[in-house]
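Running this now, will post back.
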Amino acid sequence: MIAAVDVGLRRIGLALSPDGKVVIPQRAIERKGRNQAAAELSRFLREWEVDTLVVGIPIGGSSEEEMGRRIRHFVGLVDLPDGVTVHYQDESFSSREVKERTAGEIRHKRDGRIDSMAAQVILQRWLDGQANGV
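Update: finished.
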């Protein structure tokens, strides 16, 4: 099972791909603190028997270095199940892409749907890159 995360300051979006083709957004983790969020992510990875974790990380832009450091630090707090490989994928504009695609279809409230749909975009980008040998 492949999972993707979109790590944010308030929520962590989640998506799964059971077959490397279909990507399904999951319920986001509400982030009350780093340790709580890391523990919930660890439980999620174990529950779904994830063996590959794709983490969205910003590439380019003024916040690349700071956000990249924060995201890598957070991933370091997660008690990863044995054998899980971690890959980083450019997340640039994934949330904006979701908001543009869903404009008028869903209300953009802060319930985590946008975050998990952004994780879905991140995972789809990674899968597309794998299929194209990138």
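The chain has one domain: 2-131. More later if anyone needs it.
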